[in-house]
Amino acid sequence: MQVFVSHAPSDRDAAARLRADLAQLGRQVALDRGEPVGSRWWESVLQRVQRCDVFILVASPAAVRSPGCLATLRYARALRRPVLVVSAVPTPLPEGADTAPVFTPGADISDRIPKLRGALLNLPAAPALPDPMPPEPAVPYLEPLRQRLDEQALEVSELRELFRQLRLRLRDEHERAAVWGLLVRLRSRPDLPQPLATKVEKVLAPGWQPDPERRVEKRYWDGQAWTTLVRHEGREFNERRVPPPEATWSGDPVPARPRPTATSSGPRPAVRPRPAVRAPSRQRLLLIGGVVVVVAALTVGGVLIFSSSTPDATTTARRFVDAVNVADASAVQQVTCEKDRGRAAFIFLRGQTRLTLEGVDETTDPPTLTVLATDSVTTSTERRTYPLVEESGKWMVCPA
Q1: SS3 sequence, 345-375?
Q2: Domain ranges of the chain
């Protein structure tokens, strides 16, 4: 007997225990965790549902919200496969599972295995596959929405519907990162009408959000990109690791853009929490004309760079932070104002300090750039602000 088990990612432990129990009963088991795991994931899933003699849904609140779990359940019903519900967490069952027998596994294996055998034996035998076969369900995840967003011309009603679907999908923590990236893509469309653009901006407003990679609890979104400011276990600190350049989900069938990697041959310094740093103010992070994020691959690790509306100011800020982080005295001199150029290395390259560019503020006179300076030895961090002066048509950094 071949058994197909569909479960949500959060129920992997219950699914693994069920798989071991089924194997002990001599059943061949195919597992699907209800989320994309490769470019041909969906095709493989449908083939395994077609071959199974029993379809088992590991039921939980996450599973009944999972597009993958629900799609495979509906397909199994269309193929007339016997369905058994194994309860991981009590939850109302979706259509297609609400009439199926429910098995609640206990903790005692000596009691659990015989009851599971009985539940399987009480299921009807799987009939032959229908002829003709029912239509295969479409990929239940985000690829269709991404394809729609890539279309050149969309009606206003179509854009509104895309936004509605993305906002609904944003509630699923497993899809949140990918949906966030698609909302950013939707915002960039030139045909987005102003009322809808306002709604999109409200969703993407600066603030603390769940970390798109789920490595920490919260990460600060500056309105344009993810920053290195994070919250975790009651602490707020600057994480040295560069966040993803685009909010992508590693499980999505569409390959994510390559992430920057360190070029240093030596081991990367361990990330250590530093004293809490308050999230930057909106005025400091939102720049005149928009903000563009540039991710630089450094020999000592990535640093997130924020762009201003003035390309020369952006270039200067990036070159300054990069030069300090790789201790390039010549490069530091090239972006230092004339009056301090001769002692630039003495001013900026003392100690073992690593910089993270927090923002460029052009509303001040003169404009300023703000960095978070972390001592590599003590891990203490301080915020530093430097004036930017214009010399020979280029922005230069002045110590004071």
Answers
A1: HHHHCCCCEEEEEEEEECCCCCCEEEEEEEE
A2: 2-121, 141-204, 211-397
C-alpha distances (whole Å) from 35 to each of 12, 65, 69, 185, 254 are: 12, 12, 8, 22, 13
Q: What is the pLDDT of residues 143-158, one digit of tens each?
A: 678 778 888 889 999 9
Residues with Cβ within 8 Å of 383's Cβ and at least 6 positions away in sequence, in order, are 277, 358, 370, 371, 372, 373
Query: What's the pTM?
Result: 0.44
Amino acid at 24: Q
- pLDDT by residue (tens digit) across 236-261? 888 765 565 544 433 333 333 333 33
What's the CATH number for 2-121? 3.40.50.1220
Residues 6 or more apart whose Cβ sits within 8 Å of residue 336: 344, 347, 348, 396, 397, 398, 399
Q: CB-hemisphere CA count at 13 Å for 29?
A: 21
Q: How far is CA 288 from the centre of its chain?
A: 27
Give backbone dihedrals phi and psi of 302, rounded to 5 degrees, phi first.
-75, 155
Q: Which single residue is written with the structure tokens 């052009």?
A: 362
Q: What percentage of the chain carries pLDDT values higher than 90? A: 30
Provide the token pair at 335: 């972006």
Q: Name the nearest CA neighbour of 85 among 98, 72, 70.
A: 98
Please classify residue 180 by burial: count the beta carbons closer than 10 Å to its beta carbon, then call 0-12 exposed, 13-18 middle and 19+ buried. buried
Instruction: Decide if 129 contacts 165 (C-beta within 8 A).
Output: no
**Residue 193: pLDDT band with limits 50, 70, 90:** very high
Closest CA to 350 of 379, 372, 373, 322: 373
* Alpha-helical runs (H) found in 232-291: 282-285
- The pLDDT of residue 38 is 59
Q: Which residue has the tokens 């206990």?
A: 106
pLDDT above 90 for 349:
no
**Angle of helix 156-169 versus helix 194-203 axis, rounded to 10:** 10
CA 364: distance to chain centroid?
34
